[in-house]
Amino acid sequence: MNSIGEECTELKKQYDDCFNNWFTEKFLKGNHDDSVCAEKFKVYQECVKRAMRQQNIDFKEVDKDVLGTEKEMKAPPQDASS
Amino acid sequence: MARYFENTTVFNFSWEQVACGYWKRYPNPESAHVLSEDTYKRQIRDGCLYTKRLLTKTNRVPKWGEKFFNAKSIKIVEESIVDPKNKLLVTYTRNLGYTKVMSVVERVEYRGVASQTVALRSAWIDSQVFGFSRAIRAFGLERFRKNCTQMVNGFNYVLHNMFPKQSLSAGGNANVASSAAMSHALKEMRDAALTATDRAKANVYASVQRS
Description:
The complex is a heterodimer of chains A (about 80) and B (about 210).
Chain A: H1 9-25, H2 38-54, H3 59-63
Helix pairs in contact in A: 1-2
Chain B: E1 3-11, H1 15-22, E2 34-45, E3 48-58, E4 73-83, E5 88-96, E6 103-113, E7 116-126, H2 133-162, H3 164-169, H4 173-178, H5 180-210
Antiparallel strand pairs in B: 1-7, 2-3, 3-4, 4-5, 5-6, 6-7
Helix pairs in contact in B: 1-2, 2-5
């Protein structure tokens, strides 16, 4: 899969490979030490954020957290039918 | 008011397999519209993995919609929480920008039930374009429903590739029937899905008549 910045795709791939391995072999098995991919993540992040800035992406909007907060959308009551 | 939609899908894979597959969902034969995917933020809190990703997808709109929504692509923010203790993965996606024209929010809960995974998908589609909001919501809802099948087929394709043996041996409902918990959960899910389908249909008809 491509990164938003063409120049970041290779860094993304290296990080994703590291993460997927860590997720399967460590995290799901109860080992929550995530330092193994930290360096790869940092380099990849710098690239992505640069690409995002170049594309004028609104960081404030991206940074907004919704999941797990009061701002999450709620399902309507069961009897509402229109 | 936003249109609401929900449905339920059962994946013939364990929750762990679905959780691993989730990060490898793209590309797949049904995901030509997904252009890019990046991890923006990731951290562990209280034993759960919190991730925020940024996706770019092509924006497919009918001719009449181009007037409001002429962007060729759209950015999507996806938040997720993986809770391995409770075998729960929750994802929450929203579009970035153009939210007044059309906002699509999707929340999916992937829950491990016996040897399978049940995904409960909810979506809220809204628009605030004066005079056109109903038509846009109805269009958004229909597009979302169609995309659902694609999303599930694409994800299943990836899972079958990652875990080929599993998919052969999980050939059936024999496994489901043998588990009382699973059949109970499935019945509840089916009822919920039926209610939701009726509700969604009613919504679409109502909007067609009104517009």
